[in-house]
Design goal:
It contains five helices and four strands, in the order αααββαββα. By secondary structure, the protein is an alpha+beta fold. The chain has one domain. The strands form two sheets. The chain has a two-stranded antiparallel ribbon with strand order 1-2. It has a two-stranded antiparallel ribbon with strand order 3-4. The chain is globular and about 40 Å long. The termini are far apart. Zinc ion binds next to loops.
Length: 113
Amino acid sequence: MTADEIMNTKVSELLKQDTIWFYLLNRIGVEDKGYITPCWLMEYNGDSEYALMPNSRRKFGSRAHQVAYHIWKGERVQGCQIHHLCGQTYCINPDHLEEVTPTQHAKYRQSRT
Ligand SMILES: [Zn+2]
């Protein structure tokens, strides 16, 4: 499924397909943050750095963007990290997420400062 297909799918259909989808999509605000396409920003949940998943939904990870990537793009490579191409750590738009090695990730972080 592409990001566009997800946004054009009825919530009732998503609910049938996967409850984690429903959970995530029910908690995003679509906002243009200057990246190629708008960001899907998770609602603030008290953590200063990343949107976190509640304990009951941590099957795929504790951070919302990791869970989103896992569901949308399939299995993750072990040891890899998810980088935000848009620079918005609360964003879960799968088109804005990229799987990178920890070394690559550190380089991205350095080049931003
Ligand atoms: Zn984004």
